[in-house]
Amino acid sequence: MSEAATAAELAALLATVPVAREHGFRLVSAAEGRCTVEVPFSPAIERPGGVIAGPIFMAAADVTMWLAILSRLGAEDRSVTTHLDTTFVAAARREGFRCSARVLRLGARLVHGVAECAASGGRLLTYHTITYVRSGAPDAAQ
Description:
By secondary structure, the chain is of the alpha+beta class. It has one domain: Hotdog Thioesterase (Thiol Ester Dehydrase, Chain A, Roll), CATH 3.10.129. It is built from 3 helices and 6 strands. The chain has helices spanning 7-14, 18-23, 54-73; strands at 26-31, 34-39, 80-88, 97-106, 110-118, 124-133. The chain has a 6-stranded antiparallel β-sheet with strand order 1-2-4-5-6-3, covered by helices on one side.
């Protein structure tokens, strides 16, 4: 098993993700199996009607979960998303948000986790359940 990725390694990896770079995602914290990313407000993340676009929340949740997994398995891990379920709890208007993810179960083949996106005052905006398949795990190619 690889060594867990450090916060510095995770921040460097985050900078290589096009959607994260384009929208200014910033690593706030990382610990074993947990990660928080900040997404600043910009007009580019709004949809018609003035609310933050749903795909931004989903991208933030997926990227944050990926970093949380790397904080356990190391920066070289190549696990990929197999399932992302999103519940939109409240609208965000002209505001940034933070997304926090944590690994619930790190199995031999699958990794299960959750992520939450919240406004600066802690108001829950979205809730996500996420499953990754571990690359190179038995039966991962099936």
